[in-house]
Every structure is written in C-alpha cells, then in structure tokens.
User: What shape does this take?
Amino acid sequence: MANRITTLLVANRGEIAVRIIRAAKELGIRTVAVYSQADKDSLHVRLADTACDIGPAHASKSYLNIQAILEAARQTNADAVHPGYGFLAENEQFARQVAEAGMVFVGPGPETIRLMGDKARARETAIKAGVPTVPGSDGVVADVTVAAQIADRIGYPVMIKAAAGGGGRGIRVVHHADELEKEFIAAQREGLGAFGDGSVYLEKFIARARHIEVQVLGDGSNVIHCFERECSLQRRRQKVFEEAPSPVLSEERRQALCTSAVALAKSVNYSGAGTLEYLYDDASGEFYFIEMNTRIQVEHPITEMITGIDLVRTMLRIANGEPLPYRQHDITRRGSAIECRINAEDPAKGFFPTPGKLQQVTLPAGPGIRVDSMIYPGYTVPPYYDSMLAKLIVWDETREQALARLARALDEVSIEGIATTVPLHQALVRDQAVQQADYHTGFLEQWMVTHPLS
Ligand code: ADP
Ligand code: ADP
Ligand code: MG
Assistant: This one.
C-alpha cells in the first residue's frame, strides 16, 4: 500500500517522543519534533529530522497548545500527528482539528475518543457490550444528594471519580456517608482544575483488587488482543512496576478477560492501539472493567517483549490505512517481562520531585534488557513535566529469571546528580511478597510504611 504518511509530527516530549521517532524512522517516515523552551536540549529534538519551538515551558502554553502544534505541522508539511500519552493524547478536539487540517491522527477518531475517553460514558458502553463493570452510578452523578442515594445502595466505601480523569488524579475514596459531600466537591474541583471538566461518577471501592489490563489493536473492522499486563504495584493510583503476563491468571481467566476486551473494543469499531483496564479479584476470579485508554500506554514495552510485536509501528501502519497486519492466532507470547518506572523523585523524602542536572548516566545492558529513556550525561531534568526519566524493561524465559535479571540490571544503573526511584525498585524486586506476586493495588503504599528507604 502506498504511504499516506510521509512526515509525522510527534506532539509529545520525553521518552515516548523518542520511542515514536524511532518507530517512524524504521518505517522511512520523516519526523518532526515539537518542543517547549524548557526542552530545546532534549533527546527527541536531537533525534527528529526537524524540530519546532511551540512556546514557553508551561505545558498549557506549549504541549497543550493545539494552535501552536497545528501551526508547526503546517510549517513542516506534516501529514500525520502522533499524540503519545498524556497531554493531548485523549483530547477529542485535538483529534478532530488534526483531521480537519487534512492530517492523519495516529489513534482512533474523535467520536471514539468521546465515547471511551469519558470514563462515565465508557462504563455505559461496557455495560451495553455485556462487559462486567464495578457496581456504581449510571453515568455522571449530578449532585451530592443523588450521590448519597447511590452510595447507600452500593454500600461504602465508594470511589468518586472525575469522568475526564487520568494519571490517578480526580479520584477520591469515601469510607463514611459523612465524608461524602466534602469528597464529592473535592473530586469535582480536581476534575475541573486538572481536566477542565467537573463531571464525576461513583463506583464501589474494591479493596485488595489487582489491576489487570488488556492491550488491543483494531483497524476499524477487526480487533485483536495482545494479552494482558498486570500493574497492581501503584503509588497514588499511578503505576510503578508492571509485568506481563499477569502472574495470577489461569489460562481460562486470561481467555475470558481478553475476549471481553476484544468484544468491547469491537463494539465501538476501535481503530488503533488501546488498553482496557480492569480490576481483578483473584479470590473469586471476577473481573470488572474500569476504563479504556484510547492511546499508547507507558507500559506498552512489556507487551512488545512477550509478543515480539512493535505496537507503535503497528499504530503507524493502521493510521496509514493498512488493515491489521496480524490475526489473533499470529499473536503468541513467550516468557515474562517486567517494567520499572525510574522517576526523578526521592523515595526517601516522600517522593519529592528532584529536577536538576545529571552529571553522569550509566544505563544497564546485556541479554533481555531494554531501556526507553530520554536521558544522557549532562541532561538537565526540567521541573515542569512528568518526573519519569526512564523505563527499565527486562525479559526472560520465566518470571523468576526476569526478577533476577531485573535485580541485576537495577544494580547497573548509575544516575549521578539527582535522587531517583531506583532504590525503591531495588528493594521491591527483592521483596518476598513481590517475588511471590502476592500483591494488590493497595500493597505498595502499605509496604512503604513498613519498609522506609532512608
Ligand atoms: P498509563 O495509563 O499509560 O499507564 P499513566 O496513567 O501513568 O499511564 O499516564 C501517563 C501520563 O499521561 C501521565 O503523565 C499522566 O499524568 C498522563 N495522563 C493520563 N491520562 C490523562 C488524561 N486523561 N489527561 C491528561 N493527562 C493524562
Ligand atoms: P485513571 O484514569 O487515573 O488511570 P482509573 O479509573 O484507571 O484512573 O483508576 C486508577 C487506579 O485506581 C486503578 O488502577 C486502581 O488501582 C484504582 N481504582 C480504580 N477504581 C477502583 C475501584 N472501584 N476500587 C478500588 N480501586 C480502584
Ligand atoms: Mg487508569
């Protein structure tokens, strides 16, 4: 098929911009980076064929500035835009304006983003597709009085979630009826402040659940899955350590989970790479859909490691108008992969951000190791953005060997100049409960209380 995409603008920064530029280059696509004034020395700027300054450091003036990004695309004759994750990746308006400007948006269409990007609406879509969801409200909850009635019906504790939320923000847990009003208002305010939308909905709070998600790929008519990832080790509802496959799913449960994800994605004629997130109760074997991310995810490399498929390349091929290059039976898995998010935060000081200059950087190598990162010796981590510096990804034949390989690789990491979360991962990977996969979404925060890293 003829290449529709010849020049790709990457509307993002950091490691994911680097990841996308690499995939585009391998397909012979010319690449355009955009950067804020705080990022002019970034690796994505160096690696791209062309780079455009899109404004001041603050994301609202640069990476979230749709007009500046579209102008950069016009100036560089870009014919496609990849949004990465975060920023404008799940912004319906952005997807629409990219298309209206005559370019290809690398992801699903604006209608799908509207349907699945709004978390309350996605729940309704799931219920219609016969996929189990956490008990909760039917869509958005208008006011506290209605919320109180629903909470009484489903029983406390409940969660109040911003419909537009992401990255663990806009979520409140309510243990008793007398806290409901305060938390309801707080969640509304957080949603409005962080995502420009104060709509909230309710879910029953599921304690001791595991977070298991399914990677899917669709081309608008066919949808396949690339198995699951388990991301139960979280801090502030943000993933910290992820693995594929989930160490607790039986083959029967895996099939049921992945089949439900494909059915749900098919029900919206999904196109592109997407992830359906579930909570899984390993005591009962029940799973409940919580949300869909209509974009590439941070932890996509562990799926690439166990399946051998390049998800970002596949996204680009789908956006180019090609049919899915794989059928379900082509997708097989082998071995076990783990990812650690290495952040510029000090785990001994309450995970306080540690921007600053990296004097020296040594990253691990050797069999089964992959590092997705944008850091280099002398790089200065700006204070304005997400604190993730690098993803250390390992693969091995078994989970046990992958853990040993991860411990070895973490010990090879040397980042001088700022504190990072490497010591947290070094302790986690050697922890007996982690080694036995005996954890749930609340595990890490409890563990940190009993395992201080000072
Ligand atoms: P993933 O879902 O890929 O595992 P995260 O939840 O950690 O990753 O989100 C990745 C990045 O995207 C983070 O910087 C997070 O703050 C941001 N993010 C996630 N969802 C949204 C959203 N709906 N709007 C804006 N930013 C988001
Ligand atoms: P985000 O859009 O910020 O990623 P999610 O709805 O995916 O928000 O939830 C983030 C995390 O919060 C989940 O991975 C899980 O750990 C926790 N969580 C979400 N919903 C529930 C629930 N109903 N009960 C318990 N924990 C939940
Ligand atoms: Mg989520």
Summary: Residues 251-267 form the longest helix (17 residues). The chain has a mean pLDDT of 97. The first strand starts at residue 7 and ends at 10. Residues 277, 291 surround magnesium ion (ligand 3) (CB under 6 Å).
